[in-house]
């Protein structure tokens, strides 16, 4: 009997559309999911279709799906200004680590 891998990390991500709208989602594979959104195919979020080019502006690793869903709810309740501040702090941290 095979056991499902329950140790995979989950990620929360924020995408900026060409019109500056922000989209928040969760996934286990950011590269794959972002490519799906960019392709605009059947697996892309309806919200993002026709709003490209898209830019991945924020990622956050979480321990499991439950934690990712809870964090997604928190982020989606943030005001636009709060999300922009979160993105700005994230990008500053990324650039300072280089």
TrEMBL record:
Q: What is an example of a Pfam family matching this protein?
A: GIY-YIG
User: Which InterPro entries does this one have?
Assistant: GIY-YIG_endonuc, GIY-YIG_endonuc_sf, UPF0213_domain
- The chain positions of domain GIY-YIG read 8-85
What domain of life does the native source organism fall in?
A: Bacteria
Q: Any coiled-coil ranges, and where?
A: none
- Which family is annotated? Belongs to the UPF0213 family.
Q: What is this protein called?
A: GIY-YIG nuclease family protein
